[in-house]
Design brief:
11 strands; Hypothetical upf0131 protein ytfp; five-stranded mixed beta sheet; four-stranded mixed beta sheet
């Protein structure tokens, strides 16, 4: 019996082999650098900082931000906006483990949007579930500085021009970027604690 070759299009923190390996418990390397046509990357995934599995406080004054923004995929008709990222070859069980990590996101198939970069039978990506999508962020939302820096450095490590392409196809966060510390932790094993 042949097992289907499956993959993930990573466009945020999972671009980092370190981050993907932490969740999956094995070394992970990208099989290809790619762009995802028909989509754009935006700061539009929202989590309630006080009610979710991890609560962060501002490092400067200890205050608790109301919400934290993360990266997301949104449909786009402008191919210039197509986000860059990497394709990770994974098993079905590993995709299910990522479903636990990406609990505010829904997994969906993007194989046909990857063109020649895709050598796998099915490739998936994550986008915010409707309850966690914020077209406009609340006034008390932030982006955690360690998250923004980690993702940018993961793209810089992909090779020449990839960091610039990431910044150009993402744009700056629409809210304040804040140094923050974890103050409450109910995080499932394998999920990042830095953001």
């Amino acid at each position: 019996m042949t097992v289907a070759r499956l993959g993930l299009f990573a466009y945020g923190s999972l671009v980092s082999p370190e981050s993907a390996s932490e969740t999956l418990g094995r070394p992970v390397e990208a099989s290809a650098v790619a762009r995802l046509g028909g989509w754009r990357r935006r700061w539009s995934t929202l989590r309630d900082n006080r009610e979710c599995e991890k609560t962060f406080a501002r490092r400067d004054n200890g205050g608790l931000p109301g919400y934290v923004l993360g990266l997301n995929l949104e449909p786009s008709g402008d191919e210039a906006e197509a986000p860059n990222g990497v394709i990770l070859e994974l098993t079905e069980a590993e995709l299910e483990r990522l479903d636990v990590r990406e609990l505010r996101y829904a997994r969906f198939e993007v194989t046909r949007h990857l063109g020649q970069a895709c050598q796998l039978e099915a490739v998936f990506a994550y986008r915010a579930k409707p309850a966690h999508f914020a077209a406009r962020p609340p006034h008390d939302a932030i982006v955690i500085a360690s998250y923004a820096a980690f993702v940018e450095s993961a793209f810089q490590a992909l090779g020449p021009g990839q960091g610039e392409l990431y910044l150009g196809t993402t744009g700056p966060p629409p809210v304040e970027v804040v140094e923050a510390v974890l103050v409450e932790d109910r995080i499932p094993a394998g999920n990042p604690r830095r953001w």
